[in-house]
Amino acid sequence: MFQAPSVFTRAPLPPATPESEPRREQTPKATAPASAPASAAAGKRDPYFDNVKYLAIVLVAVAHAWEPVMDGSRATRALYMIVYTFHMPAFILISGYFSRTFDMSAPKVKRLLTGAVVPYILFETAYSLFRRYVDDAPDTPISLTDPLYLTWFLIALFIWRITTPIWLTLRHPLAVALTIAVLASVTPGIGDDLDLQRVLQFLPFFVIGLLMKPEHFRLVRRREVRLLALPLFAGALLFAYWIAPHTQLSWFYRASSAQERGAPWWSGLVLALGLLVCGLILTIGFLALVPGRRTWFTALGAGTICGYLLHGFLIKGAVYTGLFDRHTWLADPVGLVVVTGVTAVAVTLMCSPPVRRALKFATEPDMHWAFRKDPKSPESPKEQRGQQDPENRKALVKH
Q: Quick check: keyword Nucleus in the entry (predicted)?
């Protein structure tokens, strides 16, 4: 699922199952957290969007923790399907919403490079080395063109955001994005580079976010919508429980075409559109249920990029060291509750301010030395004071 790299205002911001054959390892690629939701106008963070990001990253981590132990539980598999239907669309939609002002200006390009590209390079390398030595897989390559596990969202975010001016220029951007997504689902020749299948198949949610306005979120958060969201998820869970034993989970990952899954090409068209509609409906339900007030976990929304990038080491470490194989009771109902609770607590700690500060060098690096100074950008007060001549400074002091 859940992001994810972050669209960052500095907050931002799968073992493949038998049905899905990943390219670099035997797990479905992870999902990631959404981008940062700070209010650009007032410079203040909106607690609602921080709540969205925190709750979404918890769902992402918990769903990843279910993967190694859910095969014996139909209910857990159904819950997994529900989460994977909406948590990435929610992340991507929010990322699109906060990309509306991206205009290729120097400051925003710098922020994109340091907030998405640099973390992608660092964590793609880190996860490759982690698998190589912890999983005893010496042939694991370090490839920046084939994202490993949860790093795919960072490079996808870079591609989506860098194309934002194109989508904002088109007369009918959503229709174009839908066409691209559906065609991608039946085009096996796209290949594995930069996980373009996912980039293209999830693209409509990013474009929807670009087209959204604040009043749309106010509409989603109305009491009537919240009341409808509860039976919506209850019905979705019953339906998922019914179809769970007969459903290929690879459809939810959007990482390959219908032909690569061994299905007829036309099924890609039908299921791609179906998942897009279901993902949007459940995303609306999720956004409606998130509290808009400040809560105990609101401050953790600023650190979801850390929770996203770090929780993979915890889960993959447990898989690589055989923890789930040695303790088979974790697949029992009590074990699933334990796995869920431990994962939720762990990812909460990973989003905490101390962890965010410790990881700032990788997720929010200060790389002013790598960029040219923009002559149009205003100088800092310190620089302005330094350039004033002594006589002017004396005059200022006198007055």
A: no
